[in-house]
Structures
1.
Amino acid sequence: MRLSLSLSLVSLLGILSGGCAGNSSFDALGASVLAQTGYVDESQAKGVFSAGKKLVKSQEALTSEQEYYLGRAVSAKVLSTFPPKLEPNKIKYLNDVGMSLVAVSDLPETFGGYHFVVVETPTINALSAPGGFVYVSSGFIDALRDEDELAAVFAHEIAHIVNRDGVKAISNAALFSALSEASTQGAAVALNNVASPVDLGAITATFSESVDGVMEKLLTKGFERSQEYRADLYAAKLLQRAGYDPNALIRVLSILKERSSDSSEGWYATHPAPADRIEEVESDFNFPKEVTPAPVRGARFHKFVSAMTFPAFSRPRFSSDPMRADLKLAASAR
Amino acid sequence: MRVLATVVFLIICSVSAYAEDVWVQVRESRVRSKPLFYASGVSTVRYGDKLSKTGDEGGWAAVKSGGFQGYLPLSAISRQHIVLSVKGLSKVEADSSDVVLAGKGFSREVEQSFRTENRNVRYDLVDKVEQVAKVSTQDVEQFVNKGGLHN
């Protein structure tokens, strides 16, 4: 109890001192205030205060390991609602496409690696959980025409992981609690020669709150518009870097635009209007005029979707689909 | 000649001054022979391993340890001292900045506690996803080459 209280004071004083970096008199005042509580002496208070201040510096992100466990919990919730399609021949193709992008991204390795999975739902949707979990709905796969478009969807989700948008959905209080648990243990060892007892109930409550925060962003509220625009821009760059056609991103957004009257769920509920996204990304990225993909990409994508079983909601596939012909015209008329 | 010697001396000083301790922050990573995702591996490092970082090249860090030197993605390493256990952690280390204890905060232990409170949440499917939704580096390289993509 005594140690737990002192660690709480570390947090409080750390926050205070974080706003006054470099102010030694403030540090001394903080240590003095902490010492007056009677829980620690003056010397210990200085140490605790210092540790708390250092903690604030590392608040920018969870550790890679912590992001992984957060991502696993979010994934567990997502998969409880949307069952994954895990047939080996299909999942290998998805992960080949995804990893070809990850390989040239700014976050090629995460604690537990990247995983790309189709989940069963007719709603057009794709989402990513912290740490490297990427989910795309079967309804979205059904709407895509080629590998480059699939890569565009993945590139957008990888961008959210690289930008740590999921982690940013966690409240500052919860984030601070998680970080202090990992970081102030060191201070506790220094002061007491023992690891502090972990308040598992409290940290689990924080964890649960964080998972709910991320889930709310992913499935209900969506990220900020600026985060989505930044993810689109990064996706265009990543596609180009990987050798995919960046125009595929515009084609995917055009598909969403065309189908926006059909649904207000999934990506439509959590993302800015496709027309706004097209306008935004076109103003920030210099799209090449035309890129002809290697024929093998078309062949392997068609092999992949042919092996998929789409439920009754499916539209006709490939070039015979009149809606797709319209989309092609719309894209070429840009 | 004197100028050249000075330049060489300064370069040597700057290189040696740059070397810093870093820790592996991913579960496992392949140290590459070149700063390329698909380059051949020279060693494997694991979470919490301490390395010496000797330089940056794009998004890659040049690293070395006792028996090898090569490259790791910057995302695989951390300047924070990742400590796997409090056992053996000295007072000095514990009081220094940027010490992180592995397995604290959001951790396996917390996940277990969360699972107990949320028994309907499908962690079994996440385990399955992690098990099957992955490909080898060689597979991806082959896929990239066949598809006319960049590596």
Note: The first strand of chain A starts at residue 84 and ends at 85.
2.
Amino acid sequence: MRNMAEREEMLDEDTQKGQFMTFQVGKEYFGISISYVNEIIMMQPITMVPEVKDYIKGLINLRGKIIPVIDVRVRFKMDPVEYTDRTCIIVINVKTTVIGLIVEKIAEVDTIQDSDIVPPPSLGRKDSEQNKYVYGLARTGDTMKLLIDPEKLIKDEDLEVMEEMQDEEE
Amino acid sequence: MAEEFNVDGMLDMFLYESGQLLEKLEGIILEKQDADCFDDTDINEIFRIMHTIKGSSGIMMYENITRVTHKLEDVFYYLRESHPENVPHLELVEKVLAVSDFVNGEMDKIKDGEKPDGDEKEILEDLDNFLKRIKGEIKEQGIRLPRENKHEEPTQFYIAPVASEDSKFYRIVIHYRNDTQMSNIRAYSATYALKEIAEDLLYTPEDIISNEESANVILSEGFYMLLQTKSEKDEILSLIDSAEANQIDIERITAEQFIKGFGGVTQPEEQKIVIDLGEEPPAEKKEKAVTPGEYVIKAKETGKGKTLAKNQPKQQSIISINVEKMDMLMDLIGEIVIAEAVVLQNPDLNGMDLPNFQKASAQLAKITTELQEVIMSMRMMPLTNVFQKMRRIVFDVSKKLGKEIELEVIGETTEVDKNIIEHISDPLMHLVRNSVDHGIETDAEERVALGKSAKGKITLEARNEGGKVYIIVRDDGKGLDKQKLFEKARDKGLLGSKDKEITDYTDNEIYRFITLPGFSTKEQVTEYSGRGVGMDVVVKNIQSIGGRLEISSELNKGSEMRLVIPLTLAIINGIVIQAGNSSFVIETSSVKEFVRLTENSIVTEPDGEEYIILRGEAYPFLRLSRRFELDNALEKVDDGIVMVLEHENTQVCVLIDKLVREQEIVVKPIPSYVKKVKGISGCTQLGDGSIALILDIGGLIHDEERG
């Protein structure tokens, strides 16, 4: 029984391996491993929550489940833009934390081989810790895509503080 | 052999069942702790509990548990059969509690994945001595011991032998391979498996669990069972674990043969199934078939043990569910409610005349409401278990401290949300301990001198009142000494300024001192109180579930601690309001009133803080829109509404834009990714699927005070 499940899981992972959900923020394209992606939904009415980081836009109601959404553009320290009908929310699941990412435009699902991924050049960027969530660059066709580690994207000092708070509560 | 079972499932079942039984056991014991002796019902019940735990722990091969419970079973067997007088009741109570503690301890180890390695010898010896002693006393009185009946009762699986027309009777013989280890346990597991389908079941040798010798008997002679059931042979066969069995014979017998017991089975009736499982020729088999009566214990009455079965159905009607699944169900029902609103309030329907649709939708609405009610009621649990723990604490602590205390329990069936029960157990335990330890006078004469009975009395009461549950711990002891409390608080520097006099405080404020952090006096630190859990922690715990603690007391008459807690955390009655573009919900019970005010009634301090003068009293004033930096909110006080909110006797006035409606709301936590916001305690979905944040008045006020 267990072996079966494991095998299925492995299969599942195999088919997802190298698949990336790509989206546009600003003029750059970004990619996120498809294994994190739960679904993509249209822009929803967002309930703002006071006194939180500016990139946390608030809460949405995903079929009865209340999840937070963050604006990736703001998270990348770009100026916010108006949401359009192309604006989408990518719902990702990172270690049981379900979070929505607001992106300007969904591009496509790309298959990127490991060999096509190069680490971002570190020249003169040692100080720019803010970019650590980009873990690789990938060339597909004629565009460069920045691959994002969602764990690092959502996990910053806030989350750590959060976790501590939760631990205390428990 | 354990690996042949589905160990996980069985382990869970074992832990769950035994846990339940032990709780029941403690319940019986503590209820009768003050009585002179146990009555027959109790003795039977305790006996049955011990027997069941013995049996199942035997299957799970937790030998120390088996031995201890077996020994206690012996004691109660003796009590039941001989009705000895002069049994030191209190000592017996302690013995039972010791066994219960031991088994509980071992089960905790098992739960943590450890081996139950507790040493049972001490308890065994203790029980042995106890048993010998009560027996010894009786011998002097010349009462004969019914030793020969010793193993008659336990062989029955307590299933009432209700013979119905389609009941069939079987004689089952299992022969195990000669090298089988612990064939007695195997045999027992076979009886255990058959128990599910059995209407009545007898087996021999009978003492398979308690007597290790029986393993040899089973190996050499085979294991015999008489079974009354509605099931067919195939089913019986499939239930019996045949892994180590050489041969399993199942033959149909008549009811008369069945009633006669093993001795009566002489000739098999028409059908006979012999399943030969081994290569070895069944040489011994014949020999056995002719001499089954040899090792049968006589005087088998199939009807015996019937009365013991009365508690079976009760347990079977309860199933335990993983809380996660309950939460999932709850979420799903929440979704249904939202989906229903989306359908029924769909703008496409506007202006249409649809009588049939209206009817159908009314029906749907009714069902969803009912669904919600059912799921809520599923989360409700009676306080019985919590109160039972308190009985135990009163018993333990009062004995250790040498105080005679009577505990009265009122309203223990009051139902409260499971989440809340988990949170009140510890605070309540602390309050009860305090009452026993500090409340009731140590010296009984002191009590008598004050005109009270020598025996102290603690009352534990729960009642449901106005959507809140009151849990009250009342003692008739010393009461709180205001002067002493005041001095203590002053000496500890908890008063802020040293100049204040006791007259500056109301009684209530003085009693509240004991809930301040750091207010614990040396004399309070005993084994039972002052384990680092002060009253401040109690209050904090209670507040975390939206409850509060009220204290009242009268010197030398006693004190009363009242926990006022919400019925449920999951659903509150709330008022939906709007400020700016955002919706908020405020718990209805914290809203004192709504007023319309003009700009004139607001007083602004130079630093920008605002107050409101309302009927001659000044209240802090807060604009929700400014506090939370909301967009598009009203700025003028004249246009909005001012709510007067109260939290623990502190009031605050809050300006909002408009009231929407009052409704029941399902509380959901803010996702943990969003950090905690002061003044917001959770969120909820409104009927249209949008999200509203729930205001935490305590947080707002606290913030206001600091800010």
Note: The mean pLDDT of chain A is 78.
3.
Amino acid sequence: MAQELDSYVDGQHDTREPIVEEPAPQPFSYLDLARLDEALTMSSRETGLWITLYVGDLGSDTRGTAESLHAGSGNDPSHSVLVAVSPGQRVLEIVTGSAAARRLPDRACALAVLSMTGRFGSGDLVGAIVNGLRQLSDAAGHPSAHRH
Amino acid sequence: MPVIETVLIYGVIPLAVFLVFAVLTLLPGRGRDKTNYRPGQPWEHEAVWYEPHPAAGGHGDVEVDHGRPGLGATAAALAIGEHPHEPGSADDLGPRRTAAGGARGTW
């Protein structure tokens, strides 16, 4: 069979294996990335909170890792919300800063977590994240509606 | 009506319409689920940390420092336990705990 295939090599059809390695498969397609980007940007714009999304391993102490990530997140950790997803460990952590926690009480976060984990369980990572972000931004509301 | 005409009108045309719709619905879904996640599978991708566009939120007067590593819009996240070092900040006093609340869940 191999010889038969070789006989078809005529200089016009390159049947060699590619030398350059293919890039590692990305976790999300471009369409998914666009959805995630829009969800993050819109929820941050609506709430005035700095909502970031981490997807990756969270180590053995998932809560501690998520909290230390939150501490190092961007400009103002007290106004930032970290949504940390570890699909390999099947853990989701939402961490809110002190100012963000007034807008997003733990109960609202737990509700978002509940709906997200339901979707994660069916394998819909992006849909769960997009919906969870929408729920978080709905719960937090618009910044002008709040008087701190 | 001749038999051939009958077969053409009542057999071939519906079949053609059916095939057209079958092709339209089945073909675009090909290879779409390459990156699908199944619960229980190991996650072998690099950790990523997405953040919104700088103008989007974060308290109005956000000054995003683009020189910092790992905090780009779709840049790779920092490794676990590795934080962007801020010279002259309160890092010397030990890690501040900034978390005030939140929730966790598993699936």
Note: Chain B touches chain A through 51 residues (CB under 8 Å).
4.
Amino acid sequence: MFENLQEKLSKVFKSLTGQGRLTERNINDAVRQVKLSLLEADVNFRVVKEFIDSVKEKALGEEVLKSFTPDQQFIKIVRDELINIMGKSSVSLNLKHHPSVLMLVGLQGSGKTTTAAKLGNHLRKSGRNVLLVAADTYRPAAIDQLEKLGKSIQINVFVGDRKNPIKIVKEALEFAKNSQYNAVVLDTAGRLHIDEEMMNELEQIKQLSGPDEILMVVDAMVGQDAVNSATEFDRRLDLTGFIVTKMDGDARGGVILSISHITKKPVKFVGVGEKIDAFEPFHPDRVAARILGMGDVLTLIEKAEKELDKEKMETIGKKMLQAEFTLEDFQEQLKEMKKLGPLSSIIEMLPGAPKVDLETSEKQLKRTEAIINSMTPEERRNPRILNASRKVRIAKGSGTTVQDVNKLLKSYEEMKELMKRMKHGKLKLPFKI
Amino acid sequence: MGFFEKLRSKLMKARKSFFEGLSQLLKGKRISKEVLEELEERLIAADVGYETTQYILEKLKQNQTNDAFSSLKEILVELLEGNNQVDVESNKPFVITIVGVNGTGKTTTAAKLAAYFQSLGKTVVLGAADTFRAAAIEQLKEWGNRIDCTVISHNEGADSAAVAFDTVNHAKAKFKDVAIIDTAGRLHTKKNLMEELRKVHRVLGKVVEKAPHEVLLVIDATTGQNGLVQAKIFKEMVDVTGVVVTKLDGTAKGGIALAIKKELGLSIKFIGIGEDMEDLKPFNAKEFVDALLD
């Protein structure tokens, strides 16, 4: 929907190439682009103003480094400043008491109950004995929801009398002490920050439970008003941090910048999907790129490093260079690629990726894999032996047609041809092997 | 307390924070650069979005008025006015589906809508087609108990299209006036979940001609610019016919609804201004703008 900020900025700076310094005059347009981009990402307009001022101050008079173009230099300043505000690295939980109490608060619909289960699961993975406490007695069936989630991950849920949140929390803490639990997660009812009575209730719960962490759960899709609710929750409860949910959507998440700038409290986790383990520590650098609409190359690189078998990829790469790449290698490569997740999630992470019809490509890839899987090892190593009857067999085996098989063979031949040209130095690889 | 007064008092907090002083700023004044800048800030702070804000400011400039305040009111009313009615008389049963991303208040809205139509003397059946979220079915059933309305449900994890199918069949067999189907929250970016939602809608059309007659997208008033993308994709996938803006009793203005109306032509049909059963109301552009600005 939106043009990538980097593209916009490179246009702005095109006229400037060759100029050695960022000046008031030549950064004005760029500043405007950044401002619009931040507003589109739902960063609060007051935060945008302050942010822009400090970026301007840093940018003015800055020498453009030799290895950078002016737009890259400017983006770097913007990015560094974003990370500066959101915190340089992820901040972990600070749990001292025994049992440690973690209290979740927030507006209705931000995802507290689901987050309680995810956080519980996360704590257990790090070796803690976790008790979930259902203190949302207002929303119909909220307690049932937490009970069901707890059951699905085998974590006990304390429900008490199902009526009085203060009493439930009190009893839950006693129960936890007597039963060797060392981490207690409190799910509280969603409330508007202007609801005096409900905010009082939170203060009471805080007082009687002495939580190690008071985390506000914030929906990544919220807009300008986030600063109002975050400020009020922080003022009343002195939050220790935030958990931002629904980051698996396509919201740019400018709210993260707003709340960390205004409250100076860190975002500790992000929710990235409906599954219980779709819960990650917060990485400011990645979100900086996302807020600017620049994709998430870092995540992709990290994922690739973690998931891909380096040796295998290297062998394949060498083979490619020597134009000895067989369908067997191709099969191997497809397998490796799949470890990175569906194509759509890979493309999403690339900056300025074109909006292609991913579903068709995804289907195409599956078909390709099925065809190769239906070949004998010998056929994969030497596709030349594929005659008409072999092709019919492969088509049947993979649920495709002979035309599909032919198409694949043709693109394989083309690829080989390409590699031959690379080998002879007529074509340069875009990456190092 | 009449609805208008209630709306006014509920929107008071919203008004206080950002629209406070707007009448002093604009009443009886001509448009100046300072006035425009101030207004731009306030509109953006209300999540109206940059483009729609520019559109409103541009119109204001064109109007060449001596009273910027009433001019702004006119522009906002004109922008928000459209097909704001839900005509349940047009079919029996009249089938409504409730769709949207997670956490906007779909289940609550479904129940409150049922109560609203009941208060008009209609017979209503609710369908618990959110079979995904843990305890969503219990939540709707609990509401059904409170307002004395039949809720058709299957087990958790069941096919939501089957629930929808049974709900409209029940409505037909028992001659109910309105069938309201609550669906699971889903992010618009999840292809498979959106396909599932399409299936629910296809199935409805097989039981009752032209059903669903109304597809309501529930948008949380706190939603930022992503709301526009949500509305666009839900509209493409399931042909949304209108918007319900919930949680307007907080400090958020729900300005994204203006952008949705302007960019996609989707009118607001209901607004939620509180937790009480009667706090869901049919939308009226003039009343709404008056309450917001006066």
Note: The longest helix of chain A spans residues 402-423.
